[in-house]
Amino acid sequence: MSERLRNQRLLALFAAGWGLLNFPLLTLWDRAGTIAGIPLLPAALFAGWALLIGVAAWVAEAPGDEAPH
Amino acid sequence: MNKRVLIADDEPNIVISLEFLMKREGHEVSIARDGPSALEAIRTTRPDLVLLDVMMPGMSGFEVCQAVRADEALAGVRILMLSAKGRDTDIAKGSAMGADAYMTKPFSTKELAEKVRELLSAA
Amino acid sequence: MLSTPLVLAASFAYLLTLFGVAHWADRRARAGRSVIGNAWVYTLSMGVYCTAWTYFGSIGRAASSGLWFLPIYLGPTLAMLLAGSLLRKMIRIARSYRITSIADFIASRYGKSRTLAALVTLIALVGILPYVALQLKAIASGLTVLTGTPGGSGPWWSDSTLYIALALAGFTVAFGTRHLDTSERHEGMVAAIAFESVVKLLAFLAIGIFVCWGLFDGPGDIFARAAAQPALKGLSGLGAESKFAGGQWFALTLLAMLSVIFLPRQFQVMVVENVDERHVQRATWAFPAYLLLINLFVLPIALGGLLHFGVGGAAPETFVLSLPLANGQSWLALAAFIGGLSAATGMVIVEAIAVSTMVSNDLVMPLVLRLTHRASTDLSGMPLAVRRVVIVALLLLGYLYFRVAGEAYALVSIGLISFAAVAQFAPALLGGMYWKGGTRAGALAGLLAGFALWSWTLLLPSIAKSGWLATGFLTDGPFGIALLRPEQLLGLTGLDSLTHALLWSLLGNAGLYVAVSLARAPSAREATQALLFVDVFQRSAGAPVFWRGRARLAELQQLATRFLGAEPAQRLFADYARRAGVTDVERIAPDAQLVQHVETQLAGAIGSASARAVMASVVEEEPLAPEDILRMLDEASQVRALNRQLESLDRLKDDFMSSVTHELRTPLTSIRAFAELMRDDPDMAGEQRQQFLGLVVGEAERLSRLVNQVLDMAKIESGHAEWRNDEIDLRELVAHAVQTTAEVFRERDAVVSVQQPDIVPTLHADRDRLLQVLLNLLSNAAKFVPAGSGRVEVRLTADAHGAQVEVCDNGPGVTLDQQQLVFEKFRQGGDAANRPQGTGLGLPISRQIVEHFGGRMWLRSEPGQGACFGFELPWTRQQEETGT
Predict the structure, then answer these.
(1) Is the pLDDT assigned to residue C871 strictly greater than 50?
(2) Is A37's Cβ below 8 Å from some Cβ in C?
């Protein structure tokens, strides 16, 4: 993908990350419950974090156009 | 078929050739050499067809055409525009003004004669 | 408990290993097989972000406020997503303009301002000192826990922390200041840092695994037990009671996001030490992954510790040490200590190198330069010496701070205070990279405001809370003015001190930056730099030269020797000579290009601001006016203006083309029509046929005349016409022209008279062309003269200036509005019926010919009173076109 597209996708991811990992949406997870024994909020937080990293990896590592700098 | 044809063009030699051609076809020919006299001639003689040049002094062919079409009484007059300009925009302008046909110069005498026949038979 | 000698021995052994790694990497680099040209190493080097704070502070914070340690690591994750564009741009700028520190970056952007550089350095210094102290404090605490002997107290000569600090200083000096690299790269250091990142991650994971599965039955067990205890339950949640909690979370994330870029150590490893822009791609996700891994076990360890020791049983910050120790795992505890040591030393080393570079380039060297005006003193050893002194001083000062103030205030807060200090660089730096309107005054104003607000709302309160200042001003405001209370400025309550401080400082900073920048247009220098920075990707590799002066080669060589040393200077000029294709160094042209090159190299040693000052003293620079620079650089708008011109010319050409084609088609129409008529009528009357053929021939002639004239016109206008210049006798020429046209006039019964002086000086011009003009005028007169009573007068006069010819007829004349059009192409007077055979190009061509010889042509006429066409030719032509 072109460099511009890559950067735009990362920018979108950036915005998504801010929204998901910040308060209004975060507090949704702040309730009782566990996943595999781990309370909901920490689990969701780390899972969301890992997801963000995973998508970023996918976007960042995709082969780019061999355009000369 | 004996129709009245008006030739409106300011170039003398073109007028001569057109006159010869129309007479050969058996039509009655009258001549105007500029825009205003062409319009005048159309109003007075009510030809069946006008061979109208675009580039004329006084009034351009487009203006004459527009004036004729604006006049209800002249609805039966067929107009064939002749011009050295052949761009699509000019052709479109011609039909927008109300011309029945548009031919570019230099024209083929055969094609012109055929087009004249077509226009006059439809009348 | 472990014995102190053991711990110390292990520590020093570790430091030696580090030394070894760095040494090995440096050797490999010299052999050309660099180990750090690798995206993974680059990513790991960024791990220097995690300091002893991560090891000790995070757990302490988790133990008291649950997940609130996390935003410090979420921020950098989000920041890295922008790395692709933001970081790459910074790297490109730094590489292109040889920027070696954050102070250099900011100063360079705003016109290489030394004041700005100094201010940034000062802010960095003040901000970083507590952070260094924090690392030392962490090591001290760790030592205490491991060995039972209180570190960080007692007489300073027996304080092991001091020796560790000194060892660190020595290590840093050894690997950071070996030589002066104009790119400020330190391969050995980067390799060592990457190694450290691995060590601390592994150690931390080991502790985490131990706590989760060694002390408990997995993380689920820990959380379950924690949930059972009301005191610990809330730690798994956000505990968001305060209505500003969202804002605080946001502020922390934002703060961390800014710090990961603006901390001097981060700038150093991410920008300065970067070897390949493409590595940024990997780091975009790999660094956040590192952060995630190292934080995975923070909460379990914190909860595990609280469960194990009970709340308040042991200091949470040292759980990583106390937990293994309490369970007989001494070696694991030692490993954890080494991990913590690793984290601390990484931070200290890189930070010290970065800050010492800034202090040397932007505080000390400018002072030195101002004091030693004479160009003779050899300063080549100075930059290195200054750096070494600064590194040692920094560590000693850090130790001092730790001894004096470190105990009273929690570790956590110190770190965040430092973050908030470097966050003040954000508006000036980010604004400088994306907004061409930012000016030096704006950056200065913003930085000063931000720093002032930071000091007032964060630094002073922390000093007061450590017991070094009376706390009266905290509670009542300075001089009793409640509105100015440092932690509730202007009455804003409810926020924690950090969020509060961040809000005000960034607001003031950014606000003043924008406002002051907009108050005045950027200077020439600022505008140039703005363009270079903001548009760095659109520019080619070579920065444009904006020196317009010259210098003497010897002076430049002297300068280079003075600051770089004799050998590097020699190499510099030899390389330049080779690249310029010059055989002898002495033959290098000391032009602006060389000056720029030398300045760039000097910038690597003493900073760009000082380099510029130094060069300015040597180069006789013609000051570039703002117009010059903008003209030089604003190619884009020039191109646009030219484009508009081109479009209007294009339109003119189209008009001409359509006129020409129209004119050509008209005779063609007749020719074709007559030919077809004759072809289709074999029985045409002979007479008729003759007439038609005559007309065809006539039209063909007309056509070829037209074609010739069009070509003539085109040639003259485009400057491709051939001119054969001669000495011309004008009397003879006029007579010739009249004679040639005599027949035409006779046919119309017109009379031609000629008026001319007896002697006329010879004119230097093209005879045939002038004849063409005369014939044109005469034949025009012949066309319009009334039949039978035509009179044409040809008047030739001569004066000091030149010769004038007028051809007047008694024809119908030309109306005023027609007079404008007469010289236009294809315009013909009268109407077509009476119009004699003409092309409409005669007059335009005539005028072109006359104007070619520097003269002018005119028409004088009144309707009904005939027309006079005339032209004047000067004796001396302004422009000479000779043949080709």
Answers:
(1) yes
(2) yes
The rounded distance, in Å, linking the Cα atoms of C382 and C380 is: 5
Q: Which two tokens stand for residue C775?
A: 């014939």
As a whole number of angstroms, the longest Cα–Cα distance in chain B is: 34
| Chain A contact present for C281, CB below 8 A | yes
- Extract the runs of DSSP E, i.e. beta strands, from C611-750: 725-728
Going from the N-terminus, what domains does chain B have, and what CATH number goes with each? 4-118 (3.40.50.2300)
B17 contacts on C by Cβ (under 8 Å): 669-670, 673-674, 677, 692
Entry pTM: 0.63
Sheet holding C856-861, edge to edge: C751-755, C791-798, C802-809, C867-874, C856-861
Which residue from C669, C677, C831 is facing B20, i.e. has the nearest CB? C677
Helix (H) or strand (E) holding B5: strand B4-8
Q: Which residues of B touch C666 (CB under 8 A)?
A: 11, 14, 84, 105
Could C832 and B84 be called an inter-chain contact, meaning their C-beta atoms sit closer than 8 Å?
Answer: no
Q: Which residue of B has its CA nearest to C672?
A: B106
Q: What Å distances lie between residue C800 and C91, C797, C875, CA to CA?
A: 71, 11, 8
C569-625 per-position pLDDT tens digit: 888 888 888 887 777 777 777 776 788 788 878 877 777 777 777 777 777 655 555
Q: Please give the Cα distance from C725 to B6 (Å, whole number).
A: 54
Length of chain C: 884
Q: Which helix (H) or strand (E) holds C707?
A: helix C686-718
Q: Which of residues 699-758 of C touch B (CB under 8 A)?
A: 699
CA distances from C302 to A49, C207, C215, C236, C345 (A): 20, 11, 13, 11, 24
Task: Please report the domains of chain C, with CATH numbers, ordered by start residue.
Answer: 4-239+253-371+381-407 (1.20.1730.10), 424-543 (no CATH), 546-625 (no CATH), 634-721 (1.10.287.130), 722-884 (3.30.565.10)
Mean pLDDT score, C275-282: 89
- pLDDT for position A65: 62
Question: What integer pLDDT is reported at residue C622 of this predicted model?
Answer: 53
* 8 A C-beta contact, residue C839 and residue C707: no
ipTM, 2 decimals? Answer: 0.91
How many Å lie between the alpha carbon of A9 and the closest alpha carbon of chain C? 9
Instruction: Output the pLDDT for position C74.
Output: 93
End-to-end distance of chain A based on CA atoms, in angstroms? 15
Helix C187-209 × helix C319-326 angle, to 10°: 50
